[in-house]
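Issue 218. Parser rejects a valid record. Input:
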Amino acid sequence: MKSPVVAVIGGGPAGLMAAGQAASCGAAVVLLEKMPTPGRKLCITGKGRCNITNVAELPDFLEHFGAGGRFLHQPFARFFTPALLAFFENLGLPVVVERGGRVFPQSGQARDVLRILQGWVHRAGVRVRTGAPVSRLRIRGQRVIGVVLDNGEKVSCDAVVIATGGASYPGTGSTGDGYRLARDTGHLLVAPRPALVPLETEMDTTPLAGLSLRNVQVRLLVKGKKKRQLFGEMAFTRSGVSGPVILTLSGAAVDGLRAGQQVSLVVDLKPALDEPRLDARLLRDFSARAREPLSSVLRGLLPRELVGICLAQTGLVPEKPAAQVRAKERRRLKSWLKNFRLEISGYRPLKEAIVTAGGVDTREADPRTMQSKRVAGLYFAGEVLDIQGDTGGYNLQAAFSTGWLAGRSAAGTTG
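Output the parser choked on:
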């Protein structure tokens, strides 16, 4: 029987995995990448270190995708973290597990992950064509028969895997091409929008830019109701806030803002102390430093950059000796420390987002194969689908798992 011909569009993690798996299953594979080299976005993931996956157990892992977790259950059942780690180990890539179960290459270099994948794809016999953007798919009788490149060249094939990524970091080649290809073939799209993106605040944060807060607890409120709460690290930027906790909360914040709802962040700056213990701490500090001005005493409780904001928002007098702080003033201070509120006014553009929310509606793809339910022989993998997870290696695992399944499924196409 003639080997099926598979065209993979996109040379990111999902595309490389799909291409290599299809070729390993006996298909003749061509990988079409529009950029001069594949894997540009992979090289900037994890701040250039490439957070490959996470060692969380499957139930916990799926929770990091929200509603998308249900769709990913099938791909993860076929190819999950242990299999991915074994895959890289067999290719000679040692890894390390860090805080929060995050997995990185031992070298700390994302380029080593890309080098390993490129070598594997080459040895599998994949023909990689760079500078080859795809303008449209060729469909006959609700079956894909090939693709047409921007230069008009036609590439015939039995199956196509769309693994073009989302629309964040367009300089790496992720410009939403897969959305257009899917829409042109009649697929429904969930509106693409930023996810894992810094948020903008009503308060001017320019004086705080560069300040990081570790071990804080942040509540996200939408229309005054708690949507989600996380513990960890956040940071201030010139336009608002960022950092791991903020990025993880940003998806729900963006959706709230897009719906015209009030979105707020409430930061507990002293989560290790409940209110009685925090009150006792304040009394001790004020007693021990009774003659010092309040602004000086607060330096023992807060980063220098936050002292002025605290005083302004609580209405406390900076020069007042600590011994003269009244009980009602101490209550205001205690409340502020436990409920530092930031009103969210917007979010940074899609080009600054780590991933894109939205994409091809998962109801349009079969999670057992990643094949389109509308067009035979057409498969989707990675961020082009409406699946997005938290930071911590979850999104790359989803890319590798869906790519693995799409590639192997496409290789089973008989034309």
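Fixed in the parser; the record now loads. The domain at 5-193+353-411 is CATH 3.50.50.60 (FAD/NAD(P)-binding domain).
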